[in-house]
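Re: [ENG-882] Designed sequences occasionally contain unexpected residues at chain ends

Forwarding the minimal case from QA. Structure tokens:
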């Protein structure tokens, strides 16, 4: 519908421009010569006024279509990448996404959090590429997660459902992009498509389990400390390689009352300033933890404010951030403040960029 209206607006502009040009030519050849200065001024003023009116009309029509397109894009975003609830099973949540395409409201990042009988389940992902070209993959993965998160008792089964959905989506795209279908060359060929993905499960006692396919690990905010949730080596991204036959979710300790998790896509840590320096996300988060009272919304505002300031308001990659803060009041859970807490055992740190 938007495309039809845009074509109608363009056709109207072309017709008006043609009519204006025809009138100018007819006047030039059909009217007697006017050598007087006054006549020339009047003629020039008439044509200037008509031309200005035409330009203003076309400009207003295009602005109307642009506003309509943005409203449609916003509605699509609310369906595909819908806002997370402010509270979910005792957790305080805040999330936002920033597209690298100026004027776009949808990028290649995805996130979702749902409360299920198996615990609160969260997904954070990053589709290769950005902008509207990645929207189909985002919709396919999120749609599958929203169903599987409730249906599958094991987190591994959720991930395998997402893998099958992505493979089916890429096969359908491959057929649609085949030269025999008459499609144009795509911006992101299917052969190069992949998705980095992090699945997280938080049970009623704050226990954390995770599956990571090539995605950055979240940061854990504990008191005034900022540290990675784990430093384990992730699996390869979904798409290029099949998942291992033997797969198990990784225990990652507990999220205690008052602690927060910050999930993000690599656009946050890859953000550069004018001199090419990367943003230090841990430094930004350390500044956030000194704000009191600390909330998920406060952390989110701090991160996005720092990203926009660091990049001069022009990030080069899509950025998504999701913050979960445990606001549950249950001092009896194992590992609560004042009791011993066993940290997960991880291999030596590795760097992923």
């Amino acid at each position: 519908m938007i495309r039809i209206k845009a074509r109608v607006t363009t056709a109207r502009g072309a017709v008006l421009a043609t009519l204006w040009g025809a009138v100018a030519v007819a006047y030039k050849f059909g009217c007697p010569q006017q050598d007087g200065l006054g006549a020339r001024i009047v003629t020039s003023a008439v044509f200037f006024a008509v031309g200005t009116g035409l330009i203003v009309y076309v400009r207003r029509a295009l602005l109307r279509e642009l506003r309509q397109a943005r409203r449609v894009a916003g509605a699509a975003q609310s369906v595909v990448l819908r806002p997370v609830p402010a509270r979910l099973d005792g957790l305080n949540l805040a999330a936002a996404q920033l597209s690298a395409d100026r004027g776009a409201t949808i990028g290649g990042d995805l996130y979702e959090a749902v409360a299920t009988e198996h615990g609160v389940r969260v997904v954070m992902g990053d589709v290769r590429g950005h902008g509207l070209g990645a929207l189909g993959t985002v919709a396919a993965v999120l749609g599958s997660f929203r169903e599987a998160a409730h249906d599958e008792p094991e987190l591994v089964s959720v991930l395998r459902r997402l893998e099958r959905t992505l493979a089916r989506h890429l096969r359908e795209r491959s057929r649609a992009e085949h030269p025999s279908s008459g499609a144009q060359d795509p911006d992101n060929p299917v052969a190069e498509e992949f998705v980095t993905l992090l699945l997280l499960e938080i049970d009623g006692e704050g226990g954390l389990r995770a599956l990571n396919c090539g995605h950055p690990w979240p940061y854990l905010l504990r008191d005034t400390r900022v540290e990675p949730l784990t430093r384990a080596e992730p699996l390869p991204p979904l798409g290029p390689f099949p998942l291992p036959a033997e797969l198990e979710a990784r225990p990652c300790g507990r999220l205690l009352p008052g602690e927060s998790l910050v999930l993000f896509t690599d656009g946050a840590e890859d953000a550069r300033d004018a001199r090419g320096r990367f943003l230090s996300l841990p430094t930004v988060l350390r500044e956030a933890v000194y704000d009191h009272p600390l909330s998920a919304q406060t952390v989110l505002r701090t991160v996005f404010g720092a990203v926009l300031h660091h990049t001069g308001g022009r990030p080069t990659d899509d950025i998504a951030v999701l913050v979960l803060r445990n606001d549950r009041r249950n001092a009896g859970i194992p590992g609560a403040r004042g009791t011993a807490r066993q940290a997960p055992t991880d291999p030596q740190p590795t760097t992923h960029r």
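QA comment: On inspection the terminal residues look reasonable. Helices lie at 2-30, 37-80, 135-151, 155-176, 266-269, 281-289, 296-311. Proposing we downgrade this to a documentation issue.
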